[in-house]
Amino acid sequence: MNKILLTLCISFTLTTTHSSAQDATKNELYKTIAHMDSVMFDAFNRQDLETLKLVFASNLEFYNDGGGLSGYEETISNFKKMFEANKTSGLRRELLPGTLEVYPVPGFGAIEVGKHKFIHTENGKEEVGLLKFIQTWRYENGKWQATRVISLGH
Question: What does UniProt give as the signal peptide span (predicted)?
Fold first, then answer.
């Protein structure tokens, strides 16, 4: 009986320790991807095209349910046009609190899922668009880059 109790206690301890280690790893990944999200969208909010060029991978695929598929060059060009058209509109993006989810992709990076809103002023009125997004992040050579972006709800 004592051997059975000892075995159960050891098993429980190992399972709890392994689970805590996984939670800590997931928590670190969550913090990392949340940071990369803020790097990307702080650049967006500042209309900083040079930083966006670094955050997006050269093989980027950007899927937009309102505008279709674009690669890296077209995406950068689209952002440039958007920024030029919105110099004074107050265009900005805000992540909706509590919506960010991060999933590890072993040997590659992570998938980020969330909801955000885009705000700008048009004809003196504040316009708000609520959208869903999915981003695939690759970790390679010590840096994180977005390789796939899916923007939904246009």
Answer: 1-21
